[in-house]
Amino acid sequence: MDTKQLVKIYKALANENRLNLFKEILKYDKKEFEDCCPICHIVDKFKIGAPTISHHLKELANSRSYYY
């Protein structure tokens, strides 16, 4: 992984809401949610709107694509 890739990942995680979302996503077991998405459950835990959460998830996904 080069420096530019790391910067993209760290930049995404530097936002407090994104970091909290990321930490919450890590808590879920894939087997638990085979038929549905844990995001519905996660949205209920945050005091920010669904469009904002969607934006943060997009930023996390974009940074992840650099990792793989």
Short description:
This protein is mostly helical.
Describe this structure in words.
With 68 residues, this protein is mostly helical. The chain has one domain. The chain is built from four helices and no strands. Helix 2 (16-26) packs across helix 4 (50-67). The radius of gyration is 13 Å and the shape is globular.
Q: Largest sheet, described in full?
A: none
Give the number of helices.
4
Structural class assignment:
mainly alpha
Pattern of helices and strands: HHHH
Helix content: 55-70%
Shape: globular
**Low-confidence parts:** none
Rg from alpha-carbon coordinates: 13 Å
Task: Report the strand count.
Answer: 0
- N- and C-termini, Cα separation: 9 Å
Taking all residues together, what is the mean pLDDT? 83
Total number of distinct structural domains: 1
What is the strand content? Answer: under 5%
Attribute tags:
0% strand; 4 helices; mainly alpha; 68 residues
List the helices and strands and how they pair.
Elements: H1 3-13, H2 16-26, H3 39-43, H4 50-67
